[in-house]
Amino acid sequence: MSRIAPHHWKALAAAWLGWAFDGLDGYLYVMVAMPFVRQLVANEHGVAASAEQLMRSRYSAYALGRFDYLSATWHASTRPADLGEEHGEALKWLGLSVKRHVAEGDRASVEFVARFRVKGRGQRLHEVSRFVREDGRWYYVDGEVFAR
């Protein structure tokens, strides 16, 4: 054991902690990641550098129930009056996978698959979202949802 270098011990500790925290699932997210993500989406004046970045922050806002942020980043021409806040607590967001990001000037699209659970049943949302940049800010416009 004396031949193990300090960086090996650190790697071992990191691997063990990763394994231990993996078993905690949602508890780890609430304790560690949630405050960071909350801080990330709390700044409504921050500007996403790309449509993909905005889409990722909007996913985080859905997961955190930040409907004010969703409204602020939804283009006024397509923003619904009711964002469905009453259903937000029934959803548990499980993960996001970005499949493709295409930007052409001030317009962009992001294809993604978001996984969530409703009343214990797993669901997938596969969508191509459209975004527009106005005055240097990206906004969600609408999306095409693919049926499973």
List the helices and strands and how they pair.
Layout: H1 6-22, H2 26-42, H3 51-64, H4 67-72, H5 85-88, E1 91-104, E2 107-118, E3 121-134, E4 137-146
Antiparallel strand pairs: 1-2, 2-3, 3-4
Helix pairs in contact: 2-3
Explain what the structure shows.
The chain is of the alpha+beta class and 148 residues long. Helices cover 39% and strands 34% of the residues. Strands 1-2-3-4 form a four-stranded antiparallel β-sheet, covered by helices on one side. It is globular. The chain starts with 5 loop residues before the first helix and ends with a strand.
H and E order:
HHHHHEEEE
Query: How many strands, what sense, and barrel or not for the largest sheet?
Result: 4 strands, antiparallel
Termini separation (Å)? 52 Å
| Form type | globular
Roughly how many Å is the radius of gyration?
Answer: 19 Å
Count the DSSP helices: 5
Sheet with most strands: strand arrangement: 1-2-3-4
Task: Give the oligomer, counting copies of the same chain as homo and different chains as hetero.
Answer: single chain
The CATH architecture name reads Roll
**CATH class descriptor:** Alpha Beta
CATH fold label: Nuclear Transport Factor 2, Chain: A
Portion in beta strands: 25-35%
Structural class: alpha+beta
